[in-house]
Amino acid sequence: MNTGFNLELQARLQHGVGSGPRYARLQQVLHDLIKDGIAGVDGLLPPERELARISGWSRVTVRKALAGLAASGVVQSRAGSGNFVGERIERSFSRLTSFTEDLRARGLDARVRFLDRSIAAVNSDEAMGMALAPGTPVVRLHRLRLAGDKPLAVERTSVPQSLLTHPELVKDSLYEALQRLGYVPVRAMQRLRAVALDHSSATYLGLAVGSPALQIERRAFLGDGRVVEFTRSFYRADAYDFVAELTVG
Ligand code: 16G
To answer: Most buried residue among 24, 105, 108, 230 by CB atoms closer than 10 A?
Structure first.
């Protein structure tokens, strides 16, 4: 089992992987192997003792390397089953759903960390994005979105204050708050663009500066045509696939 992976791991370790503590070197080699798509059968990594045998290093070292990979979301550790290469999440690009809804549907624990929330007059970006007059007050939310402890996206959202009077009204999910207030978005325009993460977003996501991300701008509308949300999200490119059904005509 996992012969190809084991051989490649052995070869790369023998080839030398720089300096630094052993666990960090092993972590780097495993990370590279996963990135290069040389994961084990069904994405399952060899067990700890096997990794210790191949590397010739202690299980403590192996455990530390695996813990580092788990913390950055590269692998997922499942009690009793082993360590799996972190699964990619598939999201529809044509359905108007929320982050929380999508993760829950997959049995994942959607979490949020507020990086900032405030009320301010629209800036030019928001005024154009939401077709609001200069000076219009908006509620701003800057949030880190996570599945359990794994950071998946950073989002900056603006909502006209006429619809969302106070940022504290959003506990976890924006869409749940909007639903409670009777402002359910019914339509949205979305733009997706590939970007390299800047320092701030990369740090929140636990990635290197310049790592690839999917920048998605969503403008969501109420039934009466008012813009209810203008959000710019940065989704990790190593965790997400956006899919859309295409029809003819
Ligand atoms: C998604 C939306 C974002 C929306 C958020 C609401 C994309 C690309 N973006 O992340 O625009 O604000 O969901 O999620 O899908 P929430 O209700 O969990 O806050």
So the answer is: 230
110-132 residue pLDDT tens: 999 999 999 999 999 999 999 99
Indicate which CATH number applies to the domain containing 110. 3.40.1410.10
| Domain identity same for 76 and 103 | no
Q: How far, in Å, from the CA of 64 to the mean position of ligand 1?
A: 34
Say if 248 falls within a structural domain: no
CB 188 within 8 A of CB 172: no
CB atoms within 10 A of CB 190: 16
Evaluate: CB of 175 within 6 angstroms of ligand 1: yes
**Closest residue (by CA) to atom 2 of ligand 1?**
98
pLDDT of res. 132: 96
**Domain final residue, candidates 65, 85, 105:** 85
DSSP state of 246: -
* 103 C-beta closer than 6 A to ligand 1: no
- Spatial contact of 121 and 134, defined as CB atoms under 8 Å apart: yes
- pTM across the whole model: 0.74
Domain span at residue 11 reads 3-85
100 Cβ below 6 A of ligand 1: yes
